[in-house]
């Protein structure tokens, strides 16, 4: 068991014939992902790493019964690709693409809101159900199978936290990079709900950063609904106000007095979440919960 | 990307939002000439990409041409929040009977546009919302339907407007929504919108921020992000395709992701002071890291470089080649510590080690920073 995907999930790769699409398809296959089809308009009939390529999503779904899709398409193509993919009945979409216009993200989000689809991203490193399958660019050797769920706004920090957990003998069930943009398709509380309901997950680690309201909203959800323990780390204590720290979402809006690492840590601590000051401390805090709960 | 007031005003005009007549001037003499054409009195306003212009003395009302020249001269010599004023906007001075606040922005968490209206303008909307919550209404907008005229009118009713004022302000709010939508804005704000004693409506300020990721579809705006970054090193970072933020310490940081870069900053700050935040994103090549080394070492007084990279989408062995080539060519003698993990990590470590870079094979950034501190204290 796990959340979002497993070794049986029939995965489609969009933008499979591009440079990133090809390399990542190879690595996803090597990891064990059940990739059944690729789509690149105009490249139907080709093969990439033995995977058949189609011109449209509808065709890939009809011929290969694809149910999940990972995007390696350029930013201007994301909107149209997403709408097409939703219409084809795909139930899980992972958007790795960075720099997708925020208005496009909002349009896709609204279109998806009354349909049966879960979209992760944009600017997501992907989703990995450890030891089974991955959709995205996460390097497989950073993860160890186990029972910790990880929800991260940052790709590289999800790797750092996961290998640190492993050195403390703690593996991961599923690791989800929600995406680093100011507007993402799936917010932290929705993923907390999935982990809460996953019998294979014992504890959830949240990796947050400056900016936005994700961690504050996660705290509200935890207070009301979570029975499993949660441990958190928030990056960017020293981020200067008003400066974007690489991630479009990581900007402290001084005049709102929210979105600072301090406000996030306070909100989480108030609902009983152990908050690590530095990444390596996450492992100690998780151990404390699992060894003497 | 934030727009200057005059650029925002231009977008307002295009969408039919009335603004006072204005011109731009880059010298006191030019300001005087422009004021003469416009007719006195005028307002002389600093054009800078930050708020707080009034407090900094960047907005002056002038009743005479001599005073126009004098205030333009003073404002053009100002630096507001570190940003030098290079142009002033000279606008007609408008009589005010009533002020409103109108805004459209993104509710990031819910992922929808949100329209905001207040019958009290002039000060910051956050302050209005805090002090007089009943005088502010906000409403999420369906991005596929847009802000319907009936919705805009409903908002006007909720803040107590009626009659002609209701339809006028609602019309301007709809037009502001079009600015937001047509130009991929993250923020479009009029503060204040004024009603003159003659019952005409004018936007006296224009605050517009456009989504950087959408600039490719607005070539007609002729906006270049690079030209708007005042810090020379940050501008250079943008030119080579990385995010660089200058800080006030002396330990340079190079990270392959924003989260990792921020965590590195947090850890280094416990006992040392970071000189910068630098994030390469997923496009590392030997050439890129060569340029990145050059960039972080341009800052005076750097004592050490801390490299923290993951091989996920990035070929870190290529990055290592660029770093060591830079070190050889420029005779870098300060400590360089590298933590590099992921695909092809052993190969990367070899390249670093052979050229005197201290390699951290431990998986935690904390351990890497400890080694860095140890080296700086004279250890090996």
Q: What keywords describe this structure?
A:
heterodimer, A: alpha/beta, Rossmann fold, 2 domains, seven-stranded mixed β-sheet, B: 380 residues, alpha+beta, Dna Ligase, domain 1, D-amino Acid Aminotransferase, Chain A, domain 1, six-stranded antiparallel β-sheet, four-stranded antiparallel β-sheet, 12 helices, 24% strand
Structure description:
- Chain A has 293 residues and is of the alpha/beta class.
- Chain A has 2 domains: 110 residues, NAD(P)-binding Rossmann-like Domain (Rossmann fold), CATH 3.40.50; 153 residues, Succinyl-CoA synthetase domains (Rossmann fold, 3-Layer(aba) Sandwich).
- In chain A, 34% of the residues lie in helices and 22% in strands.
- Chain A has 9 helices and 14 strands.
- In chain A, the strands form 2 sheets. A 7-stranded mixed beta sheet of chain A has the order 3-4-2-1-5-6-7, with helices on both faces. A 7-stranded mixed beta sheet of chain A has the order 9-8-11-10-12-13-14, with helices on both faces.
- In chain A, helix 1 links the parallel strand 1 and strand 2.
- The longest helix of chain A has 13 residues.
- With 380 residues, chain B is α+β, with helices and mostly antiparallel strands.
- Helix content of chain B is 36%, strand content 24%.
- The two termini of chain B are 45 Å apart.
- The chains are: A alpha/beta (293), B alpha+beta (380).
- At the A-B interface, helix 4 and helix 5 of A face helix 8 and helix 12 of B.
């Amino acid at each position: 068991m796990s959340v979002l995907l497993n070794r049986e999930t029939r995965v489609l790769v969009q933008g499979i014939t591009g440079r990133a699409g090809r390399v990542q398809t190879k690595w996803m296959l090597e990891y064990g992902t059940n990739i059944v089809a690729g789509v690149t308009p105009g490249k139907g009939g080709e093969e990439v790493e033995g995977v058949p390529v189609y011109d449209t999503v509808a065709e890939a779904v009809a011929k290969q019964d694809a149910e999940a899709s990972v995007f390696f398409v350029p930013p201007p193509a994301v909107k149209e690709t997403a709408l097409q993919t939703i219409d084809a009945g795909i139930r899980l979409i992972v958007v790795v693409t960075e720099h997708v216009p925020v208005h496009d993200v909002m349009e896709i989000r609204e279109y998806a809101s009354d349909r049966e689809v879960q979209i992760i991203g944009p600017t997501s490193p992907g989703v990995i159900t450890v030891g089974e399958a991955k959709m995205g660019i996460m390097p497989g050797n950073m993860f160890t199978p186990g029972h910790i769920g990880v929800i991260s706004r940052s790709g590289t920090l999800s790797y750092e936290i996961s290998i640190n957990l492993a050195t403390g003998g703690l593996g991961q069930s599923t690791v989800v990079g929600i995406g680093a943009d100011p507007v993402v398709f799936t917010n932290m509380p929705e993923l907390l709900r999935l982990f809460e309901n996953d019998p294979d997950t014992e504890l959830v680690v949240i990796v947050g950063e400056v900016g936005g309201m994700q961690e504050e909203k996660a705290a509200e959800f935890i207070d009301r609904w979570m029975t499993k323990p949660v441990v958190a780390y928030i990056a960017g204590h020293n981020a200067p106000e008003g400066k974007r720290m690489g991630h479009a979402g990581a900007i402290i809006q001084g005049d709102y007095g929210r979105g600072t690492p301090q406000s996030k840590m306070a909100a989480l601590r108030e609902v009983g979440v152990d908050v690590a000051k530095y990444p390596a401390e996450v492992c100690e805090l998780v151990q404390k919960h699992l060894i003497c709960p | 990307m934030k727009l200057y007031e005059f650029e925002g005003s231009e977008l307002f005009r295009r969408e039919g939002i009335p603004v006072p007549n204005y011109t731009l001037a880059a010298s006191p003499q030019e300001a005087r000439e422009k004021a003469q054409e416009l007719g006195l009195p005028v307002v002389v306003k600093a054009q800078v990409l930050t708020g707080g212009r009034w407090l900094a003395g960047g907005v002056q009302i002038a009743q005479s041409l001599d005073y126009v020249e004098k205030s333009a001269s003073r404002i053009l010599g100002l630096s507001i929040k570190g940003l030098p004023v290079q142009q002033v906007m000279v606008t007609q001075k408008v009589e005010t009977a009533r002020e409103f606040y109108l805004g459209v922005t993104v509710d990031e968490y819910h992922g929808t546009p949100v329209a905001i209206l207040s019958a009290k303008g002039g000060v910051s909307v956050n302050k209005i919302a805090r002090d007089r919550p009943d005088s502010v209404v906000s409403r999420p907008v369906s991005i596929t339907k847009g802000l319907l005229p009936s919705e805009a009118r409903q908002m006007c009713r909720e803040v107590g407007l009626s009659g002609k004022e209701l339809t006028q302000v609602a019309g301007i709010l709809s037009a502001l929504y079009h600015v937001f939508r047509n130009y991929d804005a993250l923020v479009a704000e009029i503060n204040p919108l004024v009603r003159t004693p003659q019952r005409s409506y004018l936007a006296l300020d224009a605050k517009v921020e456009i989504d950087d990721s959408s600039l490719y579809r607005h070539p007609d705006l002729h906006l270049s992000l690079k030209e708007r970054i005042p810090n020379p090193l940050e501008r250079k970072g943008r030119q080579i395709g990385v995010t660089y933020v200058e800080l006030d310490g002396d330990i340079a940081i190079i990270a392959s992701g924003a989260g990792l870069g921020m965590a590195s900053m947090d850890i280094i700050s416990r006992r040392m002071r970071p000189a910068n935040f630098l994030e390469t994103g997923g496009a590392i090549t030997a050439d890129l890291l060569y340029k990145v080394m050059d960039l972080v070492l341009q800052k005076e007084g750097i004592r050490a470089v801390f490299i923290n990279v993951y091989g996920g989408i990035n070929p870190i062995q290529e990055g290592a080649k660029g770093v060591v080539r830079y070190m050889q060519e420029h005779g870098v003698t300060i400590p360089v510590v590298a933590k590099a993990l992921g695909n092809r990590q052993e190969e990367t470590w070899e390249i670093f080690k052979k050229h005197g870079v201290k390699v951290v094979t431990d998986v935690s950034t904390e351990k890497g920073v400890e080694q860095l501190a140890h080296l700086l204290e004279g250890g090996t």
